[in-house]
Each structure stands twice: as C-alpha cells, then as structure tokens.
C-alpha cells in the first residue's frame, strides 16, 4: 500500500494514542501533531477512504482492523529505524523518531528489511 508521509504520521499517531485499542478524540490527534482541527478532518477522510480508520459524526476515531495491521507494521518498522539511528548513528531520540517516520515512505521495502534485520541481528534476535 502506498500511503503518503502525512497519512503515515496520522496513522502512527492514532495507533499510539489508542495503545489499548480505545477510540481517540480528534482534538488529541490535532494537539499531538500540532496541526489544525481542519487538517485532522481532512486526513481522517483520506484514511477512511483507504479503509484504515473510521469516525462517526462528532464521534471518536478508531482504526479499522486493516488500519491496526498497517499501523502495527509501520510502528514496528519505525521503532527499528529509530533504534538504528540512535544506536548506530548516535542521533538523539527525538530527531531519530522524526527521521524514522520520514524514512517509512522514502526507503524501499528491501532497504527497510535490511536495516530491520541488522538491528535485530545486533540485538541477538532473528528477523
């Protein structure tokens, strides 16, 4: 699935805010991403059209099953990229997180897999 960098940011934010599967308020998404409520409404429309999220009129936001799977995949890749940047490149945590999110839509699946494999290998895990 080829989703935009902005959509990735929103998907990850919703996923992180709903760590126990709870519904998320639009205002919380807006605050976390430091964007306007109108931007949130627009992106929720995009995510809904892709079948990744759903929001009832004046209701809270939930990821669909498909959205949870995609967000989980992205979150895992983001965490491993962040680890690579902090552990191997000695980038500070905040910058590493932002760079990891940016890389999710720029790097090929092969490059992502190679970096993930390297981090897991160094930690004694199997990929």
TrEMBL record:
<dbReference type="InterPro" id="IPR036390">
    <property type="entry name" value="WH_DNA-bd_sf"/>
</dbReference>
<dbReference type="InterPro" id="IPR036388">
    <property type="entry name" value="WH-like_DNA-bd_sf"/>
</dbReference>
<dbReference type="InterPro" id="IPR050536">
    <property type="entry name" value="DtxR_MntR_Metal-Reg"/>
</dbReference>
<dbReference type="InterPro" id="IPR022687">
    <property type="entry name" value="HTH_DTXR"/>
</dbReference>
<dbReference type="GO" id="GO:0046983">
    <property type="term" value="F:protein dimerization activity"/>
</dbReference>
<dbReference type="GO" id="GO:0046914">
    <property type="term" value="F:transition metal ion binding"/>
</dbReference>
<dbReference type="GO" id="GO:0003700">
    <property type="term" value="F:DNA-binding transcription factor activity"/>
</dbReference>
<protein>
    <submittedName>
        <fullName>Metal-dependent transcriptional regulator</fullName>
    </submittedName>
</protein>
<feature type="domain" description="HTH dtxR-type">
    <location>
        <begin position="10"/>
        <end position="64"/>
    </location>
</feature>
<dbReference type="InterPro" id="IPR036421">
    <property type="entry name" value="Fe_dep_repressor_sf"/>
</dbReference>
<dbReference type="GO" id="GO:0003677">
    <property type="term" value="F:DNA binding"/>
</dbReference>
<dbReference type="InterPro" id="IPR022689">
    <property type="entry name" value="Iron_dep_repressor"/>
</dbReference>
<dbReference type="Pfam" id="PF01325">
    <property type="entry name" value="Fe_dep_repress"/>
</dbReference>
